[in-house]
User: Fold Type I-E CRISPR-associated protein Cse1/CasA from Streptomyces durmitorensis.
Amino acid sequence: MSFDLTSRPWIPVLDENGVQDELSLRDVFARAGQLRGVVGDLPTQEFALMRLLLALAHDALGGPRDTEHWASLWADEDCFALVTAYLDDHRERFDLLHPHTPFFQVAQLRTVRDEVFSLNRIVADVPNGEPFFSSRMPAVERLGFAEAARWVVHAHAYDTSGIKTGIEGDDRVKGGKVYPLGVGWAGTLGGVFAEGQTLRQTLLLNLVAADTSGVRFSPDDSPAWRREQCGPGPTGRTRPAGVRDLYTWQTRRLRLRFDADGAYGVVLGYGDPLAAHNMHTDEPMTAWRRSPAQEKKRGEPLVYLPREHDPARSAWRGIEALVAGRAEAAQGGEAARVLRPGILEWIARLVTEGELPRGFLIRVRVVGAVYGTQQSVIDEIVDDRLAMAVVLLHQQDRVYARQAIDAVSEAERAVTALGDLATYLARAAGSESEGPRAAARSLGFSALDGPYRLWLRDLAAAEDPDAHRTRWQQEAHRHLRRLGEQLMSQAGDAAWEGRVVATNKGSEWLNSASADKWFHIRLGKALSDPYPFDRPLDDGSAQGPNSSPKVPA
Assistant:
């Protein structure tokens, strides 16, 4: 039996009309200019498939070597023509069912007791222990070969940790088990990549040149299908040779069990784990954060770890980690607290050197998995996009980037003022304040989400960035002031009557009127007072006085 991934359809895509289809590897590259992008059963699956396609493109094209080579690919609509011959040369290693070298698997893999497990172990959209919340209830009985191939790729990237059944021939087995060695490599990342208008643009935007500073390449960099077939145990390799190696890193050992109708089971064990610390010169598809705790623990002067995504925080609120360059973040002689993804450093180089026009729009896509219960289950998946012009990444012209970053800082301060209003109204009424504060902050950020994204998308087209920033301040002020009015109207008679509260300066009177007065002043200051105090607001209401009332600290 055979299922040739180079010629059989298995990768889900969206065409230019928004119609979903499945294509083979050969057809994905041949039609990349007419496709919107790769889709998947989960966003994490899309990220894993994208890394597979990037590894293939890097290897087939032999680069890009530098920006000149990249520019020639960008200008050539048929730039992926070499992929066809490449797939012909390596076709045997892309057979999902090959008896000796099955794709991303280990032939004849078996457990000590020759067990075969449910496909639930690799299908991540079946909630562990909650089968009634899945359309596959209560288990995955069988998969077609196309879907099975996608979940095989996903398992290497995002498989959970925990105790796994020992594989025969793996010297890490103790008592028939292998104890936790961590999640798949992509599961440790706050995944980031750039999307263009077509899949062709997306692939090219994320093809980092070999001469890029800050990203390590070596001559023996090659993907998994050009390396020796893995055995059941670890290879002993602890660091990838480059992005082709890393994007196809075999973090698991697995083998599908199948018959003529599809896959019905799987054998799954640990493969080659990777340590996350200081991999920032190897992994370009995540931001990195400095970890003083790990520096102290490991006795090293500098330790960077992947900056994971927070499900409660939209991508635009973390824009500084995306657009602040590494040199800029390290000002003052101190090591940078956060390093932006190498992919965005690469695009910054392209726009700085003039290979991309300053107004070219990209969508920064963020994807990540949040694990729970000792990383043995996936609790949440993060998926967000942020449209921006590449001028925000320009290494010399930082005006637009500073406007975008400062606008987020203003939003944070303004939403804090709204949260404080909810706190004071609750205290004035004599009720608990943490719940109302959290709810008000959530409402505030939700109200600013759409306006900020639209404002950011249009920022590069603004002739006067300062005037464009003022429009943002006015927009944010309007939205949050209206939310403040809603909180006031919902506060009730108890908050209006007020009460005496104890502060570190003594007892003070607090009611809704004083809280409202304070809120308008704080909101104005947070947003740089976007409206003159002698002019009514656009809806006819008057601006608050320019002095702070006496309220609890």
Remarks:
- Residues 288-396 form one domain.
- DSSP finds 16 helices and 15 strands in the chain.
